[in-house]
Design goal:
The chain is an alpha+beta fold. The chain has one helix and three strands, in the order αβββ. Keywords: Ribonucleoprotein, Ribosomal protein, Zinc. InterPro entries: Ribosomal_eS31 (IPR002906), Ribosomal_zn-bd (IPR011332).
Length: 52
Amino acid sequence: MANDKENKKFKAYSSGKMCPKCNSKMASHKDRYACGKCGYTEFKHKEGEKKE
């Protein structure tokens, strides 16, 4: 039983956007990235939309 726990392999999260303010991982929503720690929000742009 103890060997089963030792043999498990855990995969770390490798992808994701990091917050520029507090350097924690941001949540990916449909239209934005949001940081739950500091409240920073970055909106995603669609391909046909102009970036200003």
